[in-house]
Write a structure and sequence with these properties.
alpha/beta; five-stranded parallel beta sheet; 12 helices; about 35% helix; about 15% strand; globular
Length: about 325
């Protein structure tokens, strides 16, 4: 029996690529350059499965073409707002993602950003590397501590809980959160986490706000100028969710004016492009989308995709199907 034709749109960990090559008729993107929309459209015609990542954009128009061969998109990542899932589903194409396996490493990055922003670590390293450090003194580069502060979580799912757990038990932080549905379980009760009715209540109460909500049309610019204005003057905004959850223009203005103390970002609108307004500021920490970037996690993500497409081509329901 002929093996299904599979396209991997970017390079994956070698271990995962070997498994894919053994199970399927696999084509790799040897140059590891992001595919154009035209190339992705052609892939839907020529391959049984396409395995996209966050760097691939699959809008509704890409699914409006005849004789598409692709029957499943095995997305490499939890978020899938780069795929028009409704259009894919209408075209008879299944979509899967990779939940669960990147929870801890993304929570680690959220805490990394909190610490770096609060303690001005990026600013301090730049100063030292530039040869501008004049030595220790009592008032040099004073930051803010995490201990005893309030952390507000927007989106109390797996990653939100993991971030809150680290902050509460590791730094003694008070946890407040907003979630669309009620969350009342042993984990949140152990942290004495307080669920608030609105996002604005969380923003107003928090010294640090960490975003863990999904990327979607309804969440685009969820944190805009009006909501940023609700935050405390000494507060920090942390985003490891999706770049378009935050209105970048509004955030730059708040950071420039000192209306909030700082921010830590791992994701951006229109990445890999990052606005000069952000890169020019000292009170924001900028990481290049490192949330899931550990060897263990990226391998586990790839194996999740393998599991999903293997189930699909075996006639079983993929365990992580989202459409």
């Amino acid at each position: 029996m002929e093996k299904p034709r599979v396209l991997v749109t970017r390079r994956w960990p070698a271990e995962v690529e070997r498994v894919l090559a053994a199970r399927f008729n696999t084509t790799l993107n040897e140059e590891d350059n992001p595919l154009t929309e035209a190339e992705l459209a052609a892939a839907l015609i020529n391959f049984d499965a396409v395995l996209p990542t966050v760097s691939d954009r699959l809008p509704s128009a890409i699914f409006d073409q005849p004789a598409m061969r692709t029957k499943i998109l095995g997305n490499f990542g939890v978020g899938f707002n780069h795929i028009d899932v409704r259009a894919a589903q209408a075209a008879g194409i299944a979509v899967t993602n990779t939940p669960g396996v990147l929870t801890d490493c993304t929570a680690d990055i959220a805490l990394t950003l909190m610490l770096m922003a609060a303690r001005r670590a990026g600013e301090g390293e730049r100063q030292l590397r530039a040869g501008k450090w004049k030595g220790w003194c009592p008032t040099h580069m004073l930051g803010s501590q995490l201990a005893g502060k309030t952390l507000g979580i927007i989106g109390m799912g797996r990653i939100g809980k993991a971030t809150a757990r680290r902050a509460h038990f590791g730094f003694g932080m008070k946890i407040v959160f907003f979630n669309r549905s009620a969350v009342d379980d042993d984990e949140t009760r152990a942290m004495k986490a307080l669920q608030m009715k609105t996002i604005n209540e969380v923003l107003a109460a928090s010294d640090f706000v960490s975003l863990h909500c999904p990327g979607s049309a309804e969440n685009r610019h969820l944190v805009d100028a009006r909501r940023l204005a609700v935050m405390k003057p000494g507060a920090f905004l942390i985003n490891t969710a999706r770049g378009d959850v935050v209105d970048t223009t509004a955030l730059v203005e708040e950071l420039r004016s000192g209306s909030i103390a700082g921010a830590g970002l791992d994701v951006y609108e229109g990445e890999p492009s990052v606005p000069a307004g952000l890169t020019a500021l000292e009170n924001v920490v900028l990481l290049p989308h490192l949330g899931s970037a550990t060897a263990e996690t990226r391998t586990a993500m790839g194996m999740k995709v393998v599991e999903n497409i293997t189930a699909f081509f075996d006639g079983r329901d993929p365990p992580d199907r989202v459409a």
